[in-house]
Amino acid sequence: AGADAFMAWHSDSTRNGALYSLGLALAVYNGSGTPVGNGMDMTASANITASNGGMNPTAAQKNSMKAANIQYFKTVGDNSGNVAAESDETISGKVYAAYWVLAYITYMVKVGVARLITQRNFFKNSANYTKMLGIMQTYVGKFGLAGVLRDITYTAPAYEALPEAADDEIVVPNAWSAYYVNHLRKVTITGTLYIGS
After folding, report:
1. CA distance 74 to 10
2. Could you please report the per-residue DSSP string of 86-148?
3. What pLDDT does residue 48 have?
4. What is the pLDDT of residue 193?
């Protein structure tokens, strides 16, 4: 239950379109200081062919792929021979790049907070909580500066209102939210702050 996947169709079984798309996402530097969360639609490349045996998918094939949220490749239409991917959703309809950005920020903040609280002579106090919020704002802000995240809102509670720890970790849900913007898409994402080593 709750499983999801990203799929890409290509008629050449020696090509893995899903891995190729992931490679594009990781290869294109987006200005945020991180190589994740790039929009893959309309990223032209000559390193893979169109999905239908090197030809563009038929209208029926395109409709079938779109209905199932499966990515496919088509020529860009400028006679360059370049191909671009169409569709950036998981099979359940989530815009996966938005969730890659969210997962990346969550992980990097978790690592930064763990480094902070495992320092010698660390004390649980308001000043150090403010430092944790600064770590979170730094990583979220990189994507804001790059234009990947917009209308960022920080909603983590004050130090006095933090929830109780569970299993040596404090989980602060809804610590921030923003719009992830990818071409014409606008997706709301909400981040959780994890305080633990």
Report:
1. 10
2. E--B-TTS-BHHHHHHHHHHHHHHHHHHHHHHTSTT---SHHHHHHHHHHHHHHHHHHHHTTS
3. 83
4. 96
Render the burial of 115-141: b for 16+ CB within 10 Å, e for the rest.
Answer: ebbeeeeeeeeeebbeebbebbbebbb
In the prediction, which pLDDT does 28 show? 54
The per-residue b/e assignment along 154-170, b for 16 or more CB within 10 angstroms, e otherwise, is: eebeeeeebeeeeeeeb
Whole-angstrom distance, CA of residue 157 vs CA of residue 151: 19
Residue 77 contacts by C-beta under 8 Å, 6 or more apart in sequence?
none
Looking at the chain, how many residues does it have?
A: 197
Residue matched to tokens 């893995």: 16
Q: Which of 171, 142, 141, 163 is nearest to 153 (CA)?
A: 141
CA-to-CA distance for 73 and 17, rounded, in angstroms?
8
**Which among 152, 154, 138, 142 has a CA at the least distance from the CA of 180?**
152
Query: Which regions of the chain are under pLDDT 70?
Result: 1-2, 22-44, 183-184
Rounded CA Rg of the chain: 20
Structure tokens at 42: 């309309």
Residues 152 and 177: their CA atoms lie apart, in Å, by 6
